[in-house]
TrEMBL record:
CDD domains: AdoMet_MTases. Keywords: Methyltransferase, Transferase. Residues 41-135 form the Methyltransferase type domain. This is Class I SAM-dependent methyltransferase. It is an enzyme of class 2 (transferase). One of its GO terms (biological process) is methylation. One of its GO terms (molecular function) is methyltransferase activity. The keyword Ribonucleoprotein does not apply.
Length: 266
C-alpha cells in the first residue's frame, strides 16, 4: 500500500478537506514558486485542489497530476477542461516519468499518508531537473489543527481505542518541526527551507463539520467505521458538545497550520 488515506467518495473528501486544501494551495504555490513555460508535477493530486490552482496561477506549459486513488483520479479528470493538464493513477514512490522531466515537483497534503516518505521525496527529486524545485506541505496534526484536535481529544477521552487513534493521528510522518526538512536534506536536495502556512477552517454548523467523518471519510472516519452503533452515537454526541461549547449550534472557525518545505535539485 502506498497511501494510508481512506476515501469512499470524492464529494465526502471535498467536504472534509478539499474545500480547505484549495485555500492552502494558493499559499503553497506562493511558497514553492512558479514561472511561465514550466512543466510541473502534482504528486497526490486528490480532487485537484493544487492541480487546478496551478493552471490558474501561471502560464505553465504542462501540468502532470497523479494520485494513488482511482476515486480521486476519476473526480479530477471529470473536472478537467485544460489541455495542459494530464491526470493519471500512479504511485508516489514509483513515478512513471523520466529523469529530469519537470521544472517543479509539488505535493500538497500527501507525504504524511505515504508510508515510504523518503522514497517519495527521492522520486520527486529524480523527475525534477537540476536547478528545479521540489516542495511539499502537510498539516501539523499535533500542534496546528485546533478544530481536529478538539475532536481527536474528545474521542481519546472516551476509550482506549480513541487514545490509540490519537497517537497515530498526531504522529504521522513529516508532521514534526524539522522532520520534512531533514528528509529533504537526506534525499540530496539543496538550499532546503521549511516554514509554516496558516489558513482558516470555517464551518456553518456541527453537521457541516461532522458529516464527512460520520460517513467514514479520512483517518477519523475510518476509526468511526470500526465502532458499534451505540458507541458511534456516544462519540458524535460528545464531539457535538465540544463543537458547540455551551452555545447554540452554528458557525465556527478554526485556524489550521501546515508545514511547508522546499528544496533545489543540485
Amino acid at each position: 500500500m502506498t497511501s494510508t488515506f481512506t476515501v469512499h467518495a470524492a464529494s465526502g473528501y471535498e467536504q472534509l478537506m478539499g474545500r480547505w486544501s484549495r485555500r492552502l494551495a494558493t499559499k503553497f504555490i506562493d511558497f514553492a514558486g512558479l514561472a511561465a513555460g514550466e512543466k510541473v508535477l502534482d504528486v497526490g493530486c486528490g480532487t485537484g485542489s493544487l492541480t487546478f490552482e496551478l493552471a490558474k496561477s501561471a502560464d505553465l506549459a504542462e501540468i502532470q497530476a497523479i494520485d494513488f486513488s482511482p476515486v480521486f483520479v476519476a473526480a479530477a479528470k471529470e473536472k478537467n477542461s485544460d489541455p495542459r493538464v494530464t491526470i493519471s493513477q500512479a504511485d508516489a514512490t514509483a513515478l512513471p516519468f523520466a529523469d529530469a522531466a519537470f521544472d517543479r515537483a509539488l505535493a500538497l497534503l500527501v507525504l504524511h499518508f505515504v508510508p515510504e516518505t523518503g522514497k517519495a521525496v527521492a522520486e520527486m527529486r529524480r523527475v525534477t531537473r537540476p536547478g528545479g524545485v521540489v516542495a511539499a506541505v502537510v498539516w501539523d496534526h499535533y500542534g496546528g489543527m485546533a478544530g481536529m484536535r478538539m475532536m481527536i481529544d474528545t474521542v481519546a477521552a472516551l476509550s482506549e481505542s480513541g487514545r490509540q487513534m490519537r497517537n497515530r493521528y498526531c504522529f504521522q510522518p513529516m508532521m514534526q518541526p524539522g522532520e520534512m526538512k531533514r528528509t529533504f536534506v537526506e534525499q540530496g536536495l539543496a538550499d532546503v527551507t521549511e516554514t509554516e502556512l496558516m489558513v482558516r477552517m470555517d464551518y456553518q454548523n456541527f453537521d457541516d463539520y461532522w458529516a464527512p467523518i460520520g460517513a467514514g471519510e479520512g483517518p477519523l472516519g475510518k476509526y468511526m467505521a470500526t465502532l458499534e452503533a451505540a458507541e458511534r452515537g456516544r462519540v458524535e454526541a460528545a464531539v457535538r458538545d465540544a463543537y458547540q461549547a455551551g452555545r447554540p449550534d452554528g458557525q465556527r472557525s478554526f485556524a489550521n497550520i501546515a508545514w511547508a518545505c522546499r528544496g533545489i535539485v543540485p
